[in-house]
Amino acid sequence: MNPEAQRTPELEELLIDAEADDDEVQHTPPQVSRPWLLLLGLVLVALNLRPALSSMAPLLSDVSASLGLSAAKAGLLTTLPVLCLGLFAPLAPILARRFGAERVVLGIVLTLAGGIILRSAFGEVGLFAGSLIAGASIGIIGVLLPGIVKRDFARQAGAMTGVYTMALCLGAALAAGATVPLSHVFGDRWSMGLGFWMVPAVVAALVWWPQVGQRHGAHRVAYQVKGLLRDPLAWQVTLYMGLQSSLAYIVFGWLPSILISRGLSATEAGLALSGSIILQLISSLAAPWLATRGRDQRLAIVVVMLLTLGGLFGCLYAPLDGLWGWAILLGLGQGGTFSLALTLIVLRSRDAHVAANLSSMAQGFGYTLASLGPFAVGLVHDWTGGWSAIGWIFAVIGLGAIIAGLGAGRARYVQVTSEKR
After folding, report:
1. For 45, 66, 300, 421, which has the most beta carbons within 10 A of its beta carbon?
2. The model's pTM
3. What is the pLDDT confidence band of residue 268, given thresholds at 50, 70 and 90?
């Protein structure tokens, strides 16, 4: 990508100011004395941003049977955490300005661990309350990490976004594949399988702890970003984030149930989901790197979305003897769609302050929109008594994501101002 080649006269003055700000940040003494420890912390925190979501799907039938949940409540259980991702995302920059991004990440990782314990050990009320807390925690942390990447790894933003996305995918894959076997190890207790995932959250908090002591308030300067909600490019990034996420959370929430209804066991369905997510590791790292080698990201967005749709339709309609081929296709597509969504937040922003606010907008509005996908799948399944009709949901969401991505993938910056308060 070469944004310099596509600067408009209207942006020139803003870009000069932004470059001056970037130079000031880049030429001051390093704030991070041990970047390897920050990188390790980022990876471990990112590993914990999906297990609370992907661990539920393989056990959804067991949980529903154990607690007597209706189909509507089971559908709400898959939708609630995703909705909270969007509703609580706008709190992230507010908390970061008040306490500092590093302190907020530490506190919210511990809150995430508490939510996981709550949903696994306190019956139906705890299940829903813990899911809400977990979704809110993930929403807040997910907004802050792209800004930290933009700030501390500005010259490696594409590669670092790929590493961060790989960690997200790995966490999701581990939880999807290991939760059912873990519940068997603990005496066929689904609560233990779900509750296990508080352990890596606590480990991540311990490794992240040194970042709190290094900052000394250096990054708590309040910046005001104006014009973001009026910028068409910002809304295109937001729509792409939301629509591709909607497909991802349909997969997290419903793919195992779909495959079980087609004849697979719960363990086999969980492994299929886990295997698909593991394949995301490849494209989540490769897609941002390849996309930033070209003039813009539009072609890459179309390719990964077509791969995603192909994998979804294959898992839904194709014979089961070819399932793993479709799962591989789905994984390669979805790893690319999500990593490109995060990369667009960084590439369309002139500095870390804009990136943090664009991240809040894209994930706040985007995940709220994304929550409608799993909810719609549950409704259509209840209405029709089967899964065939949800192919129309895949098609509409996928087409919308391609249209939004063609706008978001252009090599431009969002046209906003960023100034100290």
Report:
1. 45
2. 0.72
3. confident
